Amino acid sequence: MEKLIITAAICGAEVSKEDNPALPVSALELAEAALEAEKAGASIIHLHVRDEEGQPTQNLNYFEKAFDAMKEIGVTAIIQPSTGGAAGMTWKERIQPVSLNPEMATLDCGTVNFGEEIFVNDLPLMRKFAEEMKKRNILPELECFDAGNINNALQLNKEGLLSDHLHFDLVLGVPGALPASVKTLLFMVELLPPGATWTAAGIGRWQLPVAIHTILMGGHVRVGFEDNIYYSKGVLADSNAQLVSRVVRIAKETGREIASPSEARKILNIRKGRK
Which pLDDT tens digit goes with each residue over 1-27? Predict the structure, then answer.
């Protein structure tokens, strides 16, 4: 199997410090969490940002401060900003961080019920995101919460809107979307086109089971506070790095090596770094 790419989703848009006091929120906290996760074995940092009140925002200034703070303290991992933001945001709000020309960014591939809310991603909106990312040579991570999302991504590819290499993130267990299970994971992976790479993320208590099976199946793994704030039942995780370290240990036990940031760039066919 190719080396394992670990993504650390260090903050998210839903969790608060009231849920877990170790949640990084400020630019400096995000940078320190990113560096700790990279040292633990992560090669991609999936990035959401918050304002001074700790509320989710897609404001470009907050992303720029986080990027600069990460660069200043020596983060070399791929920084992957979210263009999902939070439910209810307009596409113009959500797309702001791509103007920073990151190596990767997320591209949500379908409208989905998100708990009590609706996360809107119709095809016209998806085309706008895809066109902007292709123009800037940004690799989109194709976020798929349901089986139809994969078909939407393949439609974008058919229209010539995606990069040469397709990379999917299968997000399982969001309330309102596909549940997390090994059966669901196998089903989703079977729908992916030949040559594509994929990451899987399990929400809540499914983070670890999904990670274990993904490692064995040859996929890549996402962990972090965005998806799960606990290390075990009832026990809060100390840090994102703690969750990354567990995946590294399990992968090594199975004989699978961990990809460095430079190796992850080769696997994903990323040809440029952020200017």
Answer: 899 999 999 999 999 999 999 999 999
Q: Exposed, middle or buried: residue 155 (CB in 10 Å: 0-12, 13-18, 19+)?
A: middle
pLDDT of residue 275: 47
For 194-218, b/e burial (b = at least 16 CB within 10 A) is: eebbbbbbbbeebbbbbbbbbbeee
Q: Confirm if 142 and 105 have CB atoms less than 8 A apart.
A: no
Q: What's the pTM?
A: 0.97
Residue 273 pLDDT > 60, yes or no?
no
Q: Are 17 and 53 in contact (CB under 8 A)?
A: no
Give me the CATH topology for the region 6-267. TIM Barrel (3.20.20)
- Mean pLDDT for 170-191 is 96
Q: What is the DSSP string of 172-229?
A: E--TTSPPP-HHHHHHHHHTSPTT-EEEEEE-GGGHHHHHHHHHHHT-EEEESTTT--
